[in-house]
Amino acid sequence: MSTPSFDDNSALPETAVPEAEFISLTHLSPSTELNPVPSRGIDLGFFRTYVETLETAGYDYTLLPYGSSSADSFVTAAAVGTLTERIKPIVALRPNTTPPTIGAQKLATLDQLTQGRAVVHLISGGNDAEQARQGDYLPKSQRYARTSEYVDVLRRSWTEPAAFSHEGEFYKFDEFGPGFAPYAGSIPISIGGQSDEAFAVGGAKADIFSFWGEPLDDLRAEIDRVHGIARDAGRTTLPRIWVTFRPITAKTDELAWAKAHEYVDKIAANVSKVRPLLGKGSPQNVGSQRALNFADKSELYDRALWTRTAAVTNAAGASTALVGSPETVAAAILDYIDRGASLVSIRGYDTLADAADYGRHVLPLVRQELAHRKATGRRGPLQSQHLGNYGAEYGTYATAGRP
Questions:
Q1: Could you tell me which residue, 134 or 325, shows the higher pLDDT?
Q2: What is the pLDDT of residues 74-122, one digit of tens each?
Q3: Please, are residues 141 and 191 in contact by the beta-carbon 8 Å criterion?
Q4: Per the confidence metrics, is the pTM higher than 0.90?
Q5: Structural domains present in the chain
Q6: Tens digits of per-residue pLDDT, 333-378?
Q7: How far is CA 380 from CA 6, 183, 265, 374, in A?
Q8: Residue 381 pLDDT exceeds 50
Q9: Which helix (H) or strand (E) covers residue 232, if one does?
Q10: Which parts of 126-224 are beta strand (E)?
């Protein structure tokens, strides 16, 4: 693998974004993929500590996930808003669970209560069995068409000054509104996925488009694709790009790799306990298929991207890791910022401890480099000094102890 140029004080690539924000995912109990704790409840003390840790650590957003057997994301988002002053709660919302006029009302209420911090991430649904658990039997292509209509109704509900009626392919109502308004203007709408349908809807209509962590060149090609669709739709403001990783860090690259190998063995042993409803075999969603394809080709990409965690979980959700010291992981995050990602989600496998560690050791390094860039218009030294897999020793750490 050839090493890209990361010379100190060099010009920034044209694709680099000037600023980036950080996202985590809020966990409701101490159960992890490393140490599953069977429960269908919320550990209130842990939840409170976790959210307060995110606020203290300096995250900008937190995602409140949704599943057929999980806690309700609207209620947990409202709790996050109450427990914090700054973090923006992202509500994961499946259109099949909440009619769009009611979804608009709920989101605007959350936005008012948090004084403009609400965000929504629309999940069209990538698994037929999971959708069917709550009575949704639409095929995947129609689920994205429904999401497209859902976005239109949400935005109109927030902005229409008078009552309006609607008759579309999936929703029909008479004389709704004017709806309850957000705190100020609108609410950012995020869409993710890697099917053609996801790109079509997200490129044309989303404020944010989300990806799982992929090799740099592949992700940049996908960014170009979604932005091309946005331009073809006549948009002058392009969707922001959100990319998600599961970093594994320690004081040095060598120690981080020792931890990574220990983690992956535990994750492989526990995956059926943590995600029993997802089933086995080839996943339906394109994002998981891509992740497994990358893992099949190589375990290690670019500076620090490791795919073995995706392989052992059957790519059931965001699972690719960045492995290394805080400096190496921060430099790898900057590589993605250089390719156009302005929202970076980092959540660990040791959830609470990792959230705190990232806040102490990773976020400040990235922000320091971005501040240097803003002041000088040039690169700082972090990427050139912490090469990770672009250097000589890193690969030996990655393979140490492997058969």
A1: 325
A2: 999 999 999 999 999 999 999 989 999 999 999 999 999 999 999 999 9
A3: no
A4: yes
A5: 21-399 (3.20.20.30)
A6: 999 999 999 999 999 999 999 999 999 999 999 999 999 999 999 9
A7: 9, 38, 37, 11
A8: yes
A9: helix 216-232
A10: 164-167, 172-176, 189-192, 208-212
Give the three-state DSSP class for 229: helix
- The residue length of the chain stands at 403
State the sign of the Cα–Cα–Cα–Cα dihedral 68, 69, 74, 77: negative
Query: What gap in Å lies between CA 391 and CA 345, rounded to an integer?
Result: 26
DSSP string, 289-345: HHHHHHHHH-SEETTTEE-HHHHHTTT-SS--EEEE-HHHHHHHHHHHHHTT--EEE
Say which amino acid occupies 67: G
| 8 A C-beta contact, residue 162 and residue 108 | no
Distance CA 240, CA 218 (A): 17
Is the distance from CB of 98 to CB of 69 less than 8 angstroms? no
pLDDT value for 324: 98
Query: In Å, how far are 46, 165, 177, 332 from 87, measured between CA atoms?
Result: 18, 35, 30, 24
* 274: pLDDT strictly greater than 60: no
Inter-residue contact 149 to 166 (CB < 8 Å) = no
Lookup: tokens for 47: 């939840």
Question: Residue 68's Cα: distance from chain center in Å?
Answer: 19
